[in-house]
UniProtKB/TrEMBL annotation:
Single annotated GO MF: cellulose 1,4-beta-cellobiosidase activity
Protein name listed in UniProt: Glucanase
Record keywords: Carbohydrate metabolism, Cellulose degradation, Glycoprotein, Glycosidase, Hydrolase, Polysaccharide degradation, Secreted, Signal
Compartments reported by the entry: Secreted
Gene Ontology BP terms: cellulose catabolic process
Keyword Transmembrane among record annotations: no
Reactions it catalyzes: Hydrolysis of (1->4)-beta-D-glucosidic linkages in cellulose and cellotetraose, releasing cellobiose from the non-reducing ends of the chains
Keyword Transmembrane: no
Signal peptide limits: 1-17
EC number(s) recorded for this UniProt protein: 3.2.1.-
Source organism of the structure: Aspergillus taichungensis
InterPro entries named among the record's database cross-references: ConA-like_dom_sf (IPR013320), Glyco_hydro_7 (IPR001722), Glyco_hydro_7_sf (IPR037019)
Regions annotated as coiled coil: none
Amino acid sequence: MHQRSLLIAALLAGVRAQQAGTMEEEVHPPLTWQECAEGGECTEKSASVVIDANWRWLHSLEGSDNCYTGNTWDEELCPDNKACAAGCALEGADYAETYGITAEADALTLQFVKGENVGSRTYLMAEDDESYQIFNLKNKEFTFDVDVSKLPCGLNGALYFVSMDADGGQSKYEGNKAGAKYGTGYCDSQCPRDLKFINGEANVEGWEPSESDKNAGVGGHGSCCPEMDIWEANSISSAYTPHPCDSVEQTMCEGDKCGGTYSETRYAGTCDPDGCDFNAFRQGNESFYGPGNTIDTKSPMTVVTQFITADGTDTGKLSEIKRFWVQNDKVVANAESNVEGVKGNSITSEFCTAQKTAFGDDDIFAQHGGLEGMGDALESMVLIMSIWDDHNSSMMWLDSTYPEDADASKPGVARGTCEPHVGDPEKVEGASGDATVTFSKIKFGPIGSTFKAPA
């Protein structure tokens, strides 16, 4: 033990951030996407995806001892945040065999459970294969195909953007040899505290293993940044949701001051954990999305999201987030809200204010900058594709009645047709491990360039 301590001290003197392992070569699954120009001419981009650092094997820098096993840290290798980062390495990944992540041409498929692994979170890499692809979404549209036919209640096949650093924070934190290549630097509007590394240091201090999740826990720090949920969905319900924060860049927070899902006080932090969501079912349009509905989730679909600015420029103020759908060669406008006092079929400042009033929700969205604040963050965003279940609320906020003790007839409470708790993790992990989501045909460009809108 004394020798081990001396080794950690020696390592700590030279480095202070997470390291990259050498036991398995890190090879990113290739994935193509298309960048489009005015008029609809599109160019194929050769890119790849990388799995988030939180899912990787973390072991001693000079050996193969686990720094983290199950949901606990090794006390000798990780006595504190800095020593742990100095003495532990993130290892390369076997994407298909360990995580159930496969890519073919322009399609990425994520399997829910693969062996002992549950869920995954992946980022789109730039063509250099060393940094994340950065998107400026303002005055642009983002289009993709998705197949959610194999996603039951309780699961979420998500495609979204956050304002992470393009290099995973590597240039900000001296000694960080892992960076974007190993999936570091995550943040979102929940200011997640389940991350093993934040700002180049481990999150071991104050770490409390989860009582329900054998792989997770909550540490003393969180990582905050704006989040644009283009797509959170399964075969029953879908939602798109902007989540602004006070800062447009990634910031570290402390304990329960982080707010969000992982803290005692949800609204204590600098981000809006609720956002302003558009879920057709929640807006009273119960026959729009789902099996056999207007948008039939038994078949793949094309999802188009437009980020409209007030002056029609890439630097103007965000004024509307508009949704179109394409299925069976038919363009379908987004569902209209049927909630009294909440009109429209897109996200605008007026829609969000009216929705918060109608649902009796605190307008945390406006307190953190609202739609304009979200627009400020959209100029530099990283694309994420993931599949996950929910140990906090069983995904009832997406596809069931939530809060579960509320009157389902009250506006905003019913989010989908799933029975409460049918999506409990122990149920879906046992019964639906083979569930998958497939994202494909990603296109990005000026408004009107990625699909043909109705005249």
